[in-house]
Amino acid sequence: MTTEIALSAAPAARPARSRLAGLAVLFIVVCALPFLVSSYTTFQLTLVIVYSIVLLGLNILTGYNGQISLGHGAFYAIGAYVAAILMDKYGVPYWATIPVSGALCLVVGFLFGLPALRLEGLYLALATFALGVSMPQLIKYKGIDTWTGGVQGITILKPDPPFGLPLNQDQWLFYFCLAVAAVMFWLGWNLLRGRVGRALIAIRDQPIAAEAMGVNNAMYKSLAFGVSAMFTGVAGALGAIAVQFVAPDSFSIFLSISFLVGVVIGGIASISGAIWGALFIQFVPNIADQISKAAPWAIYGVFLIGFMYVMPVGVAGAIRIFWARMKRKAGSSPQRSG
Amino acid sequence: METFLHQVIAGLATGGIYASVALALVMIYQATHHVNFAQGEIAMFSTYIAWSLIQAGMPYWVAFFLTIVIAFVLGVLVERIIVRPVEQAPVLSVVVVFIGLLVIFNSLAGWIYTYTIKTFPSPFPEKPPFGTHLVSSHEIGAVGVTLVVLALLYSFFRFTPLGLAMRAAAQNPESSRLVGIRVGWMLALGWGLASAIGAIAGMMVAPIVFLDPNMMSGILLYAFAAALVGGIDNPGGAVLGGFIVGVLENVLGAYVIGNDLKLSVALVLIIGVLVIRPSGLFGRVHVTRV
Lengths: 338, 290
Description:
The structure holds two protein chains of two kinds.
Chain A: H1 17-36, H2 39-64, H3 72-90, H4 94-116, H5 121-140, H6 145-148, E1 154-155, H7 169-193, H8 195-205, H9 207-212, H10 217-243, E2 245-246, H11 253-266, H12 273-291, H13 296-310, H14 314-337
Chain B: H1 2-32, H2 39-55, H3 60-83, H4 91-113, H5 137-159, H6 161-171, H7 173-178, H8 183-209, H9 216-230, H10 235-255, H11 262-276
């Protein structure tokens, strides 16, 4: 079932100059945002950045490697808890928790990827779904509540901007997350555009052919799981620092489902799709809530189905199709007139 | 010993519920090759409809059969109106549509009927049968209903032309179309049947867990587990899987790990079975053709 999501090849090896210019403009606009909007909106945008890292990680696994995960909320939870415990119990500075969270999730994800190797499509969806569902229970487990704080969770402090920068805490956090996201996106892009990316896509589309070409399927599939979990863990740590609080019930199965929804809405196998998807899962529930206080989730569901009708390949896919059409028009019209 | 026996029998009873939801999942999978995440919510919604009918003064069994008919029509309508337009879309897009359906039904039920827990009547006598306290009449009744449904389904698929047509449409849509089977309608019929089975499961489980919009979420997970343990393409296996999961959940929950980690049993069980036998205990092993 997974081979049908084949949509695009690896990201372009070298982006066009116009695209780089566009990225630079976008970057400046994003950097200006915290000074233009309220603190609360800045906080929401910080979460968008955090989610976009998760969605990029999940896209590496689901979009590029064709393995469905309905349990990424679990890795997000692990990342968040590692960060919170390190800060709360061991006084580790907030920035130092992020590589630890990422590394631990890399290992856990890789280990989970090993049994998951034997599962495909539906079966993998189910196994990961079960992981997502049981995560809050595992965190609440009594044997470890001296670390995790049990049902109460852990409260952590918001970091102050360093070097006496003239920023408030929300603004600093925004830039901090943005910087981490930039590094993660650069990593992801580099990973996907070369040998590894091609191998992942080959496994998704033609596993047997890939094996015959000398790709070590088992290794790459587990690795995809690990790397994807690492991205999610890093985002989880950032999320915990941004929200200043972790509790078992913030990591329900609904979070995992939101992540998958974000990946599909944003666009499968697309790096920019991660940002579209993150905007969707952060803001659409609020919009739905404004439309109908009585049944916000019904509105959300209608949005989901509506998006899939209009853009079955996600926002990034729709944009790609739109540009391709424009280019064809631009390319063919002068010939016709001349 | 008596408590152990009680745990096993209670496990069989809840297993019967898992079995019927698993059966509904297998039905849709066989007819469409999709796993319907909204299955549990459709069952929950149908149960609310039954509740309304009973509240309106209808006798239980009339409401029971009327609800099955309504659920059947609901399933067909959902397939025709909502799922059909995305038939050609990538699998993951279809999954997102199912998730959309799930939240819509859940939210609608909460909106119409509020989130307060309601009691749902059982059609079976309150007095425990055979003078034992090991098992309630409702639990035995629920298992009986599940087995009857299984028998009916088996005969439907095995002995009727319509059942044969449905199997054909799922296995080989192109050839079925050539011999005159209306494949689109067979899919809709599969959805209708699955949602009718779901409604039965909902009405059987509601007296045990009480009626609220979230009553099916845990059950759906166990049903998934049951369907996969038994093999997603085997209705009999799904039913047996349901009983296995029910008993294991109860016995392990009571003696080994405690109630706090009950859901994790499902996780370990699923991963364990799938690692040893990836296509389930009774599923057909798929061979990929190069």
